[in-house]
Amino acid sequence: MSKREAYAIEIAGLKRDLRLFEIKPGLRIAILNILGDTELVQACAKELAKKIKAVEFDVLVTAEAKSIPLAYALSVETGKPYIILRKMYKPYMGDALKAETLSITTGQPQALFLDEKDIEMLKGRRAVILDDVISTGSTLQGMRMILDKAGAVVAAEAAILTEGDRAKWMHIHSLGHLPLFTD
Hints:
This protein starts with 5 loop residues before the first strand and ends with a strand. The chain is globular, with a radius of gyration of 16 Å. The protein has a single domain, classed as Rossmann fold (3-Layer(aba) Sandwich), CATH 3.40.50.2020. Strands 4, 5, 8, 9, 10 and 11 form a six-stranded parallel β-sheet that branches. Strands 1-2-3-12 form a four-stranded antiparallel β-sheet, covered by helices on one side. It is of the alpha/beta class. The protein is built from four helices and twelve strands, in the order βββαβαβββαβαββββ.
């Protein structure tokens, strides 16, 4: 197996080499995959907790799957509960709320579902939307739509990293920024 080109970055005091993958001709992105990297997840949760310390909120909300360990760790750090928005509907979710956006990265529709049991936890509450990497904003848009349908308010948005146009993400509480790699 050939060695893939990587982008070196320091996040929350830890160094990582993020592998580069082509997502369309002439465009590569650095992939942050926190699944299984407990050291990085814990460090990022501690730093993000500091960044959102002044934010008044009741609950953390993220979309499955890569951000789940981050939501859990940040929940422990802040003492606030977390909710996971699912990407597929399951019958046990009952009268779930649904939002659909178009993923700019894949060009495919992306659905998010809020389990019926979690609707009351959001109604009238202030939520911090959380993601591992915010790139195009389509997942954020879907999460905002769900929160609106559930009667919640977005108190803040947070991520480990933002990507692409840095100016577009100045309002995001993040620990760093990734460039896009063009040929």
